[in-house]
Design a protein that fits this description.
Strand order of the largest sheet of chain A: 3-2-1-4-8
Oligomer: homodimer
Shape of chain A: globular
Largest sheet of chain A: 5 strands, mixed
Largest interface: A-B, 47 and 47 residues
Structural class of chain A: alpha/beta
Number of helices of chain A: 11
Order of helices and strands of chain A: EEEHEEEEHEHEEEHHHHHEHHEH
Distance between the termini of chain A: 15 Å
Strand content of chain A: 15-25%
Number of strands of chain A: 13
Helix content of chain A: 40-55%
């Protein structure tokens, strides 16, 4: 049995075919270009799916899709996605089902990354996990008792918009003080640019950032690795902020494991120590005593997880 | 079928016999006196249970117990309870089972209040609820998909110790910035005493509080009802702080309903408006669109819920 997983991001859409045992059969990536409209997008991805379907034949049983934004998994609709050209009420599952003839599920992309972490990286060893996707935005996916946890309207896990500082930094969502406004990549970049103002003229970070014009996570990591003090401090603070957000989630969910994924998680070596210090110094210590904090190995958990989740759902329905 | 529920608090222990349909058969209250030791305590409550057992006969099928503190529900042990004379590793279920001959479950007291809210007050109408116990301390109990949610080590729902202000007010747990350090009754009293320093000499709150010596929630509510501006402001701020804590929990769990219970919840008329304003102004609006915030009617949800939970567990095990 094989499932196809699709991870729809603001820039790229990743597609992967994965066998039920977790083996990757093939994968590809295409530009999402949400501004060209949903019909053009749906046509583009169904073309890939139908090509693969010819090759995979009856072994292909399901399609799992993850998309960034507010998703209605029951109706298979993208309620609202700021990163997909502000798409609102976009019906995804119905047309794709019709065009491919495959059973299809739609979920939030962070949920699919969580399923990938749970089923592939952790091999279902832990039953309660929280996955945090650290990219431009900060998302969360939750597996409880070995099942994806949706909450009442499919919106559970919005850890990026939990508030860690009252009336704090401005978040892309419009609120202030969200975790994302401190550890989303745009927020890290903003703090680094601010800190660079008082840094020495010849600082490594300044050189690597084209004199402070662009500071991405990769550049900031490189500067930290070269010993730049400002870069190191920014990562240290990022770990503290992230630790605060994770501590709150840990106190509420008492999970076995928190998995970090997404671009910013690649810098974990520079922020993990202060992060863990915050977690393991909580007075209410029991939830953290056995809780692991891991960084995902795969950079494609969204598409791989979506493929695995599609297989899971279809075999569950059949069973 | 009837179950007995026991709610062990720092000061009082409440005992109630409840029928499976929710009807209260009888109830009583005794002083906990944890400093007299666990053996004396266990003897005292088993005496009541065995008395009632003689009257109720075979109709009595179970014993549910809720206790304040860090509980191991699987082993039936109080891991640590600061409010019960610092009891550590106190085996509750085994001796009570032996002395009463009844099947017995032990849970955190907030979990039992949550079960009471779910099964009795809401009649299982909502599947996902969070119950917040607002007393000296602030606890949380969570029902997900109609089941009590424990997390991995039985410590889920510690909403009182989620941090709402970085390095904020000192909490009884030793950390800073916990929700409890703002909305626990001791914290409300602390803020009120502080605010009273700058209040007019003839203020209502000053009079009601014996010239600022004791400000409890009841006194603060009375002052607010009489129009005292300081008292009204303290309750308003309490609503804002509580709103921040509930917003974070709402974003993570996306529940159908949040139920407030405990002494401080009696002042809801004075803090509900700012609380709801915080919830319903979140940019990520979906989790809050259909979420209700209710105040529990019964002041005994802990013992009643424990009775109902005991019945639930024993019939589940038998079924």
């Amino acid at each position: 049995m094989t499932g196809i997983g699709i991870d729809i991001g603001g820039t790229y859409t990743k597609i992967a075919a994965v066998r039920a045992d977790g083996r990757l059969v093939r994968q590809t990536r295409l530009s999402t270009e949400p501004n060209e409209g949903k019909d053009a997008f749906i046509e583009k991805i169904t073309e890939v799916v139908n090509d693969w379907k010819l090759e995979l034949g009856k072994d292909l049983i399901s399609l799992g899709i993850g998309a960034a934004g507010d998703i209605d998994p029951e109706k298979g609709v993208i309620r609202y996605s700021p990163n997909l050209n502000q798409w609102r009420g976009v019906d995804i599952v119905r047309p794709i089902k019709r065009l491919t003839g495959l059973p299809c599920v739609l979920e939030n992309d962070a949920n699919m990354a969580a399923w990938g972490a749970y089923s592939l990286e952790l091999k279902k060893k832990y039953r309660n996990i929280i996955t945090v996707t650290l990219g431009t935005g900060v998302g969360g996916g939750i597996v409880l008792g070995g099942k994806l946890f949706h909450g009442s309207t499919g919106s559970a896990g919005e850890i990026g918009h939990t508030k860690i500082v009252p009336d704090g930094e401005l978040c892309n969502c419009g609120d202030r003080g969200c975790l994302e406004a401190y550890v989303g990549s745009y927020a890290i970049s903003r703090r680094a640019l601010q800190a660079l103002k008082n840094a020495p003229k010849n600082s490594t970070l300044r050189k690597l950032s084209c004199n402070g014009k662009h500071i991405g996570s990769v550049c900031l990591t490189e500067a930290a690795e070269k010993g730049d003090r400002v870069a190191k401090r920014i990562w240290f603070e990022t770990g503290e902020y992230l630790g605060r957000g994770l501590a709150n989630a840990g106190l509420l969910f008492n999970p076995d494991c928190i998995v970090l994924t997404g671009g910013v998680s690649r810098a974990a070596a520079h922020f993990m120590e202060p992060l863990k210090r915050i977690l393991y110094s909580q007075s209410i210590a029991t939830p953290f005593k056995f809780m692991k904090v891991l960084v995902a190995k795969s950079a494609d958990l969204g598409s791989l997880g979506a493929a695995m989740y599609g297989i899971e759902k279809i075999t569950e329905d059949r069973g």
